[in-house]
Amino acid sequence: MKKAVSLVVIVALAAVGVAWKTTDVGAQDNAIKPLVTSYELMEILYEPFMDQLKESVAAEPEKRRGWQTIYKNSLAIAEATQLNTIRDDEDYMATPEWNQFNFASRDIAVEISEAAKKKDFAGVTAKYQALVKSCNECHTKFEEEDAPTIEP
């Protein structure tokens, strides 16, 4: 009896899933678009991850957990950086330079994660310095008057 009830529940859930997937949602705009301003994005996503990354690269991790912290935070920064490419709340965000800075920072953050996987602390710290430099150059380029500076 339990198997029959379980089977009915599974079939019902599958049917609901298929119906949900095939239902026309109408005029909903499903395009990826910014939900917050760039400033808010920096505060919400970048600052916490950069703060944790900064802490975790202050000294070579002794345990696996420390390496994981570097790995996870650098990949979170890489993903957040990709979100910058859909930004449009400032005119300069439509320039090719904007995306060049974003992709460069993303790639450096990925390189940090790869160095962390290898437990290559020299690689991690060199790439972390490069990431900070890349972020600061972008801030200076696009926010000359209010450019926040990330301290390594």
DSSP strand (E) fraction?
under 5%
The helix-and-strand class reads mainly alpha
Helix content: 55-70%
Return residue spans where pLDDT drops below 50 for at least 5 consecutive residues: 2-23
Shape: globular
Examine the secondary-structure arrangement and name the CATH architecture of the domain at 38-142. Answer: Up-down Bundle
Radius of gyration: 21 Å
Oligomer: single chain
The mean pLDDT is 84
* Separation, N- and C-terminal Cα atoms: 63 Å
- State the CATH topology of the domain at 38-142: Four Helix Bundle (Hemerythrin (Met), subunit A)
CATH class of the domain at 38-142: Mainly Alpha
The beta-strand count equals 0
Instruction: Please outline the major beta sheet.
Output: none
Number of helices: 5
Q: Give me the strand/helix succession.
A: HHHHH
Would you spell out the secondary-structure blueprint of this structure?
Layout: H1 2-22, H2 38-56, H3 64-84, H4 96-117, H5 121-142
Report on this model:
- There is one protein chain.
- This protein has helices at residues 2-22, 38-56, 64-84, 96-117, 121-142.
- 69% of the residues lie in helices and 0% in strands.
- The radius of gyration is 21 Å and the shape is globular.
- It has a domain at 38-142: Four Helix Bundle (Hemerythrin (Met), subunit A) (Up-down Bundle), CATH 1.20.120.
- It has 152 residues and is an all-alpha fold.
- α4 (96-117) runs antiparallel to α5.
- The termini are far apart.
- It contains 5 helices and no strands.
